[in-house]
DNA sequence: AAGGTAGGCAACCGCCACACG
DNA sequence: TCGTGTGGCGGTTGCCTACCT
């Protein structure tokens, strides 16, 4: 039975599935003119019978300039492993530290390659060690909540926590977690700072 | 050569937060 | 203040391909 709108007109079925080269071209052209915003109107303007969400996803994961595809280097893999250990399944944050990589690609890479690696490693290690690696999952489940929580928690050097004024152990939290600027690959210095910060939050719970 | 299976990846789904009227 | 629309995110699905029997 065909779907109809409230005024009785038939509801147009949206295109689904793989994108064609023509659709890609149309989308890229429209974004070049209007910018990557208002995805619903982009879809309409381009004459693409796609949802705004679908257009956004295609652009972000495939058409965007400077996207690197495939061939994840050992350095990048190591970084993903480290960041996942720290951040959990916060793929967008992890991707933010890997220029040219998308959250979807990293997520897929994790699920198809790295998760197996981890499982193999864990089966060779003691169970207690396995448990320790899962402590960061609290960061991934409800990202917004966690993000706001990070602004509320301050841990002092004597181990007590109190209302937070933007720093933990002299670490500027906002700066530390600002992934808006694409920089070079994650520096060891950043990792060190983040580990310190995370220990403050998790070490006293 | 044909059928079955597993892996990889693109795309979709559902939920949540935020902006705006 | 509330309702609605939109964007962003992580989880999941399903298709395609390579490999195995």
From TrEMBL:
Keywords: DNA-binding, Nucleus, Repeat, Transcription, Transcription regulation. One of its GO terms (cellular component) is nucleus. Residues 11-63, 64-118 form the HTH myb-type domain. Pfam families: Myb_DNA-binding. InterPro entries: Homeodomain-like_sf, Myb_dom, Myb_TF_plants, SANT/Myb. One of its GO terms (molecular function) is DNA binding. Its main location: nucleus. It is found in: Nucleus. Residues 11-63, 64-114 form the Myb-like domain. The keyword 4Fe-4S does not apply. PROSITE patterns: HTH_MYB, MYB_LIKE. This is Transcription factor MYB114-like.
């Amino acid at each position: 039975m065909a779907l109809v709108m409230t005024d009785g007109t038939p509801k147009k079925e949206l295109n689904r599935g793989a994108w064609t080269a023509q659709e890609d071209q149309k989308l890229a052209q429209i974004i070049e003119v209007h910018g990557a915003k208002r995805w619903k109107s982009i879809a309409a303007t381009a004459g693409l019978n796609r949802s705004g969400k679908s257009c956004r996803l295609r652009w972000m994961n495939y058409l965007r300039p400077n996207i690197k595809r495939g061939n994840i280097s050992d350095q990048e893999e190591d970084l993903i492993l480290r960041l996942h250990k720290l951040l959990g399944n916060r793929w967008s944050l992890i991707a933010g530290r890997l220029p040219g990589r998308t959250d979807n690609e990293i997520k897929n890479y994790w699920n198809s390659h790295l998760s197996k690696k981890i499982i193999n490693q864990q089966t060779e290690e003691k169970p207690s060690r396995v448990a320790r690696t899962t402590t960061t999952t609290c960061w991934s489940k409800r990202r917004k909540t966690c993000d706001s929580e990070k602004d509320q928690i301050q841990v002092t050097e004597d181990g007590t926590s109190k209302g937070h004024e933007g720093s933990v152990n002299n670490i500027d939290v906002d700066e530390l977690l600002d992934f808006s600027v694409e920089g070079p690959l994650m520096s060891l210095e950043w990792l060190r700072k983040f580990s310190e910060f995370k220990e403050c939050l998790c070490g006293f719970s």
